[in-house]
Design a protein that fits this description.
Layout: H1 5-22, H2 24-40, H3 44-60, H4 64-80, H5 84-100, H6 104-118, H7 124-139, H8 143-154, H9 161-177, H10 181-195, H11 200-216, H12 220-237, H13 242-254, H14 258-274, H15 278-294, H16 298-314, H17 318-335, H18 340-356, H19 359-375, H20 379-392, H21 398-414, H22 418-437, H23 442-448, H24 453-466, H25 469-478, H26 482-487, H27 498-519, H28 526-546, H29 558-566, E1 570-577, E2 580-587, E3 590-598, H30 599-615, H31 621-643, H32 652-655, E4 657-660, H33 670-673, E5 678-680, H34 684-691, E6 704-708, H35 715-725, E7 730-732, H36 739-746, E8 751-755, E9 758-759, E10 769-772, E11 775-778, H37 779-783, E12 791-794, E13 803-805, E14 809-811, H38 813-820, E15 824-828, H39 838-849, H40 854-861, H41 870-878, E16 879-882
Parallel strand pairs: 1-4, 4-5, 5-16, 6-7, 6-8, 8-12, 12-15
Antiparallel strand pairs: 1-2, 2-3, 9-10, 10-11, 13-14, 15-16
Organism: Aquipuribacter nitratireducens
Pfam families: CHAT
Protein name: CHAT domain-containing protein
Length: about 900
Amino acid sequence: MVEDAADTLLIRGQRLADAARGDPVGTCGAAQALLAQARAAHDDDAVVQALRALAECHRGVLDLRRAAPLLDEAVRLAGRARLDEAQGEALAARGALRHEQGRTRAAARDLDRAAALLRGHGTPAAAEVDLQRAALAHNAGRLHEASARYTALLRRPDLAPVVRTRAANNLGLVQSRLGRHASAVAWLERASRAAVHVGDAYVASVAASRAWATVQAGRLAEGVGRFDEAARLWEKAGMPLGELYAEHADALADLRLLPEAYERARAAVAALEAAEVPLLAAEARLRLARLALATGRATAAEAVARDTVAELRDQRRPDWVARADVVAVRARLAAGTAGARDRVVALRAAAALRRSGALTEAAEAYLVAGRVAAADGDRDAAVHDLARAADTAPRGPVLARAPARAARALVASLGGDDAALVRACRAGLADLARHRDSLPSTELRALAAGHGAELAALGLGALVRTGTPTQVLRWMERTRANALAATARGDEAGEATEAGEVDLVALHEVQVAVAAARSRGRVVPPALLVRQRSLEERVRGRAWVAGNGARTRPGEPGVTRVREALAGRVLVEYDVLDGDLVAVVLEQRGSRLVRLGPLDEVEPVLDDLRVTLRALPTAVPAMGEVLGGLVHRSVGRLRDLVVAPLDLPVGTAAAGVVVVPVGALQRAPWSALVDGPVSVAPSAALWWRTAVPATGAPDVPGPTVLVAGPGLAAAPAEVAVLADVHPGATVLVPPDSTSSAVRRALDGAGLAHLACHGEVRADNPQFSSLRLSDGDLTVHELEGRSHVPRRIVLAACDVGAGVVHPGNELLGFVGTLLARGARGIVASTTLVADAHVLPFVRSLHAGLAAGLPVAEALHGARQVLDPDDPRTLGAWAAFTAYGAG
């Protein structure tokens, strides 16, 4: 039977309306053409279907402003023409759109009218109405109701593929919210299979859902990788990225990639507000508020959360209102302005979240209520609320259990039970350690330590009050340099991907171009800097998802074995407790705990010293004298604050001191503060591994490599002098000191000297770098080396100073090289006038060639420097020895 023209238009309209959901971009032109034809034919039924198809095209790319009037017209036209089924379909579509606009009451009215019109028609649109009703419950936080509605819908055998895909996808998201992660994975897998039959837009949407659910299940790095794949699918489908950015921000936040998460959330808010999608925009703003709070912007967080609460109330979304209330209370708590009323707000939010089934968020709300009560001095109320938090938090991924761990520790703290407090903190940190060690890159492992910073501080406080110095030292070791210990567990170099190698080559080319522009005093083209940043982020992002996983952690040495390795030296390990510096002094016949005073007194002196030392190399002689006096004054003040109170026994300094700094003390000029050989390390355990090589490790020194980088006039002469100290050394000078040549030479070397420009990147420490003739050698690249030299001299300004992250984790050249197997390093923590330090460098290498450990070789070499000469004072203060080799 041949269809007449009217039937053909109608059928085409119905098919286009379905196709538009899966391919909104590709269907738009056909929908516009059909609408014109249907209007010309005065076919009201076909016009309604064409309007619906075109509206779905616009809605699919979040252009709700253009979609809304099309659906309004479709509803009016179908009503006038008494096309009940067509009007019901148009109302169902408009109900979905109004839901996205945050107009939940209007959406519910449209769905009710659509259900009445479609009753008895047996049309697929009836299932669409049921789907949208489930979505209303879902977004209102009635998760159990939504789960039941989606499940009932999916039992129908005759569901259209688009409805089946969306229902399975949404059910997976609900199950994830409820903590049923295995069920969520199963439903999203079904949604993924169904989406293939709908179109690219649904394939992309389900991919994003799977990424988000993977993160919620605690598989963070895998989730980030899935988000990268989802982004490619969204771009392929031509979909705007606002919603994807919002969900991606959750993953980055859980990985404590907070600046990146904040930028993603900002981009999401901007995109969704521009598209006028209030439902999703409100959620994105709340994410932004959380991230503002996490990055120390409590006032901004409170303002955003407070404004978002009103909008969420208008949208009739009580569980999201509860989430926003909790963020606002947390912000006031951080700002010190929370009061008794805030406890009531947090408790009300906890009850709402618990009813909705969002148990992790409910536990967090009870925890916040307990913190408010504790800050207000109401101990009994605080204990009650914290106990509720511990009881409410679900089992599951580590971060879901985190509120319970924190709550139990705080209950013990409020009760004055230090033994229980230490047990609770130890259990929480052990939990976190398993999570941290599952992450694929050193950077992520370092950042993850921030999740345990509060537990670490609480446990330290309890042990300082009631424990022995040895117990305090063990606790300090538990909470520092764990990311480096994970890296040190074996060969993690792995195989570089082809794409990764291509990006590294391109990055080196950009680095050369940037350096060339700067060396000529020109402004670096902005496009070049954007290109550099893009390549760095791609290289860095691969490590987040494709880095080699952690291996079995070596046993910690314990205090007895560390003391044996010290062989007469003294170890001093610092930490911060309630703003005050404390230190454990480990001696041959005992240990002591020393309280040193406020860190606030130390940090300004370190800052002044850093500024003064950086000014020395370029100062005229008269100013150099003035600056030299300031340096000595700062060094003396630091010695009084952080060394003199230790009361080290006479003769200790001559034997040597091992220092494990904390925070800002990583930048202290330790060689100038201690009158004897001093060795610095990120942790006592990592120092011990440099003193006691692994069983079976070869101790035969390899060749010596001497490298001069570009742009340093004195560097070639420096390595030429050192070649006399090390006959037969491999010497690389510009233009032969390329990154590839240097990397090859460093493999298996016994000693390396690198005289290069150095740059420490506080924004991106894995791209701190040494400048070579064809680009930079970065921390990221060194981390991927199977072998690094046994001993290394980094004659490059600044690179001895790493970047410290919460949880006492240190990222940078020194930590990475020690973790990769270097046993001794000499590096500078500030600028040095290289033209005046050649005798010092020669003396240092003479000591190293004679087999002295780096600390002793450095101590001897410093004797040739005149600390009263401004030209050599910088080197006298700046160079530090790391490790025992």
